[in-house]
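Annotators were shown the component list below and the corresponding predicted structure, then asked to write short factual statements about the assembly.
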Amino acid sequence: MTASTSPGLAVSARSEEPSPASPRTASSSTSPSSTSPSSTSPSGDPLRAHAVSIGYDGRRVIEDLDLELPAGRVTAIVGPNACGKSTLLRGLARLHPLESGRVTLGERDVTGMSRKELARTVGVLPQSSLAPDGVRVAELVGRGRYPHQGWFGRHRSDDDVVVMRALAATGVADLADRPVAELSGGQRQRVWVAMVLAQETDIVLLDEPTTFLDVAHQVELLDLLRDLNRDRGTTVVMVLHELNLAARYADHLVVMSAGRVVAEGRPSDVLTAEAVLGAFGLEARVVPDPVSGTPLVVPIGRHGRHERRDRPAQD
Amino acid sequence: MTVTSTVTPLSPGSPGANEPLDAHPVTALRARQRRRLGVVVVTGLVLTVALATLALTLGAASLPPGRALLALFGLGNDTDVFVVQRLRLPRIEAAVLAGAAFGLAGALFQTTLRNPLASPDILGIASGASLGAVFGLLALGVTGLAVSAAAFAGAAAVALLIWFFAWRRGLHSIRFVLVGVGFAYLCSSLLSWLLARAGEREAQSALLWTVGSVADVRGTELVVLATGLAVIGVVIAATARWQGPLALGDDHARALGVHTDLARVGSLLLAVALVALATSFAGPLAFVALVAPAIARRLLDDGGAALLASTVTGAALVLAADVVGQHALFGISVPAGIVTGLVGAPYLLWLLAMNERKSRP
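Structure shown to annotators:
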């Protein structure tokens, strides 16, 4: 049972890092307003939003938002329901048109790029994915090669190798000729991630990739994304619901509320009791995660409190 | 705890990004699927040729296969040559061409709209063609190629109307289907009204346009049908690669670099053009566009759009329906559209029943 041991392995590997002021995260900006020069990471250009507004049918969801997603890092975007985090991701990836503002990739305006060109640089895993009936794993993952293929869908000789590599990286190589519909939820989500990997992009955006997974599969998938970032230098940006996992797995945490970025930076700097109260309206205590040392948000509800509950929250 | 044992997580020992990797499982799967496509297409073609040979020999003057084939190439006595080349061959060609067009159009509709029930019959585009033809015949009194032109205009008009009502900041599949169903009813009501007003003799010939028949397509009409099918077919082949990403939904398709609105509109336009072309010569031929792709997809079972296999299946289906309609039904001859309707309607019911069962937990 290699699978069950892997989260532990990965966690222990991460906890060896000098967590708070690690040199790896030192270059990323810690204050929300600073527009630090783009990182020197070899993994390409950072994706930036400049005064972006996005809406649906005239209703503004994102208003005048500026954000830089540091290249070569793992960024998690968190926030309450309907705060516009998924919309932001869709806007960044050009899945949804901007009402105003622009998105740049390095020096280039994303809207000026052809869709295919963008798809060779930015891969996206949207929130809901439904595989067509009967499609096999390797075939579905092969569709990730689309932006690299020419007219008439000419198959390139290295496509199979890339697909196989994506299958191996996500641990689904054994399932190559199984119908996707027959897989478990965790396996299926890995297959979709494999499809995005087969796109071979420098940047991968994922919209709530762990939503339908149990906790073991959530950790497994996040470990996989962390590995991807470590081994290939891929920039990973994900919208997450689970604050504690976001704090543990992200280098850079973006907290959104009502269509705006209310805080961003290193999780240990950003995820405080005040921030949680401000963004989610939830009273909580934030303690160090006993496993990783990253912030752990413990909600304080109206029920189920310990006897000596009215002890003041310590920060 | 249910951690699946087939899943091997990435670890330093497992094949990583830089090591050479054996792509055999992926290549093998592709080879297997290509082989399966080959078998399905070749079987369909063989079946079509066999049916065509049968159709050449059957009829009022029954010919043995040898004489029929000789006559096909202008050999043998003049009567044989006339019967084969002038009477039977055009009908076979019309059945094959119309069937191929319906099969391909249905496959394109179903994959583009992501709905296995989407087909020109249900969307009202075929009824639009019938309405156009009947209106041309009865109200305008036109004949010949002009009737086909009227049918084409009818199909195109209905498609445009569906478009107009279904378009809301982009094309939504379910809206397209629902609006289409509405127009199907509207067209059949108007059709009934036109037929009810017509004299008995006129109604007889007009009725054929509401059913579909390949009996009277010949000469120039065949050339137009074949050329149109070839041209549209080439464009579809060139853009077939859209279908893989499109079948995953708009977000996925866009993320993969497909201009989804353009691709969806383009695919639907091509499908509408095919249906309009085929119905303008052969009439609606009920359910072929619905059934042929469903059979083809089942045979291939690869989750793809099955465009080529649907084309071949459609051709074989309509040819078979026409042979059955001419010769097998107790001595009376019925148009191919009635046979396809008789076979297709129960199939549709079965498909609905299966879908119902599947959607239940």
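Statements collected:
1. Chain B touches chain A through 51 residues (CB under 8 Å).
2. Residues 78-112 of chain B form the longest helix (35 residues).
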